[in-house]
Amino acid sequence: MLAILTDIHANREALEACLAHAKRHGAERYAFLGDFVGYGADPSWVIDTLQAFAAQGAILVMGNHDQAVFQATRDNMHPNAAKVVEWTKAQLTPEQTAFLQALPLTHEEDDILFVHANAWQPSGWGYIDGCMEAGRSLRATRCALTFCGHMHQPMLYHAAINGQVAAFQPVAGTSIRLSNRRRWLCIPGAVGQPRDGNPAACYALYDPLEMVLTTHRVAYDHATAAQKILAAGLPAFLADRLSRGD
Known about the structure:
This protein has helices spanning 12-24, 43-55, 64-70, 79-91, 94-101, 131-139, 222-231, 236-244, and strands spanning 2-5, 29-32, 59-60, 106-109, 112-115, 145-148, 155-159, 165-168, 175-177, 183-187, 201-207, 212-218. The protein has one domain (2-244): Metallo-dependent phosphatases (Purple Acid Phosphatase, chain A, domain 2). The chain starts with a strand and ends with a helix. Strands 3-2-1-11-12-9 form a 6-stranded mixed β-sheet. It has 246 residues and is an alpha/beta fold.
């Protein structure tokens, strides 16, 4: 069983809750799809945790917030996000920053593509916010299944043999068998900052033998995560949104 987690955003409480949930539900391997830092108040702890998973064979790819920690220019980043990046840089050791910098943009394994934003230009950070963009991403890879993050909302897209793409809103806790007659793109939602009106953390479990996908929502102590953001002097908006899931 493979657990897919993305957009942790330095939220220790959310990550701990999702990892515990995944372990209880039989996760044997893990894939982390970027944006490990930014917004939240525990970047150092999150990176240390992910380094330990990487040492045990977990899949990790880079997100745009991870890149922003070591990249000089962040012209397209929201001012609140840019402020957190500067704060985050001061919290990390040189070794932790080097870990982020060494992350790949993509990883392919067993006919599955793992990427943060999309397959057509992983370094451009374009969003998949509909069937048109999902189709573009699916056409850009030979893999039958793509897992990506970046959108902070769970969604499942599939392409038929004729190339027509349709969207499906997964129901948390409900398993979906992925037909091998279609090509699939799964966005499991965000661990550390959900934006679909539900404050519960979100991740997915995938059984590659049975080709069964299940998204999960996991309640966590978002009040503590928010208090840490405020205590760090980060924008209050980033704390408030955790309780609203927006």
